[in-house]
Amino acid sequence: MTTGMAVLLGLIQGFTEFLPVSSSGHLVLAQSLMGGFSQPGLLFDTLLHLATLFAVLLFFRERVKNLMLAFFGIFFQQYRIVYYQNKNFLWGIIIASIPTAVIGLSLEKSAEHFFTTPSFVGYFLILTSLLLVFSDKMKPRGELTLPQSFIIGIVQGIAVIPGISRSGSTVAAGLFLGVKREDMAEFSFLMSVPAIFGAALLQVRHLETLPTDQLPAYGAGMLAAFISGLFAISFMVYFIKKANLKIFALYCLVLGITAIIWM
Q1: Per-domain residue ranges for the chain?
Q2: Cβ distance 155 to 173 under 8 Å?
């Protein structure tokens, strides 16, 4: 893999990770068109996801800081006020992470198979398109609850399959369940933090098989994903709040059909 390939894939990952169009699906399709691309396991894909995780932490740094203090508030009295102010999101993320981890581990081998099958990605992109179309019609006004968080966590676990957008499917699930758009816009991004971190830990075993001459390419790809991810987050938050996801639904539909027919 050349540095140019890595940067291009990093830009694709960064821009599509937070848009409801499936970043993993785009990586599969892009990699299938690149001659000479190879990686140990899914290491490169996971490192790109890790770079976008850093983008989430930077963009939502104030909320992340408050959530960390709220966690300490479970055990220490001096942080109890911060805990009560953030407990819904804190426990929501913890509860959502449980089914995400269980399902993600169960689907890990199957997902790796899908990463080599572009036509499967096409079918799941069409599924993402349908989810976006129907959820965009919802007008929810409720607060996030723990049972809702658990269901959204299940959806995030299933979204390990390339072609199913993690951000799109979790936002859609929350809207179907009646969660306010502004809450889902933030919760969808924040709940990705433990999920991406966990996936990165699973791929650490492949680090020893990474040729040292590929390190500059991997680093360049991660930097590209981080920078483009920052732009994509603010862009996506705006569209979720404005209830205007139809353009992404149309894009997923066209790309899905193209992948099925031509790849």
Answers
A1: 3-262
A2: yes
